[in-house]
Amino acid sequence: NAGVTQTPKFQVLKTGQSMTLQCAQDMNHNSMYWYRQDPGMGLRLIYYSASEGTTDKGEVPNGYNVSRLNKREFSLRLESAAPSQTSVYFCASSTGAGSNQPQHFGDGTRLSIL
Amino acid sequence: AQSVTQPDIHITVSEGASLELRCNYSYGATPYLFWYVQSPGQGLQLLLKYFSGDTLVQGIKGFEAEFKRSQSSFNLRKPSVHWSDAAEYFCVIRSGGSYIPTFGRGTSLIVHP
Fold first, then answer.
1. Contacting A residues, span 1-20, partner chain B, CB-CB under 8 Å
2. How does pLDDT run across A73-113, given as a tens digit for each residue?
3. Which of B89, B49, B85 is nearest to B67 (CA)?
4. If contacts are CB pairs under 8 Å, which of residues 52-111 in chain B contact chain A?
């Protein structure tokens, strides 16, 4: 009964380092999303994947890349981390457009960049 | 473009008191409507959803919400708040043909003993 699983849960990086945040869902969902959450800013969409094999930019894509590895997995990569990318990152999945079903969220990755 | 407004950034209530969190949206038709709760350090959990039918919907944890088409509102209510309800609450809308939901900025609920 895992739902959406994100790894790692916490990470501290130095400016300029790279890392990949992992996300996997076991609900056979078509669509997957990456958000960042900052105080007072709500959730902002970084990238999404409407279906396996497609990815699209969201509201704040600069400094990030994504890979939809297969239907289950959607990773987010920071190539050269910057302090402005300190945030809590959430992965979500959903059935997709045309469905009234909600998104399901992971527990988040708390990322600090020094 | 669609938008969601949660006019209250913070709300403080006493334990046992009733609660209403406001949500107004802007969209040309009736969207799918959702309320999520985020406890400290956690992800977002779905409280309830509305897409058609009875305009009063029941959710988990004793919450309910009422859809009012004339006011473009989907307010969340609870008759008696518990200390464990202290959390961030998000109102979310999505049009039927879209992959991308629109989130409100959230309302932080503080519960006094």
1. 4
2. 999 999 999 999 999 999 999 987 767 889 999 999 999 99
3. B49
4. 90, 92, 96-101, 103-106
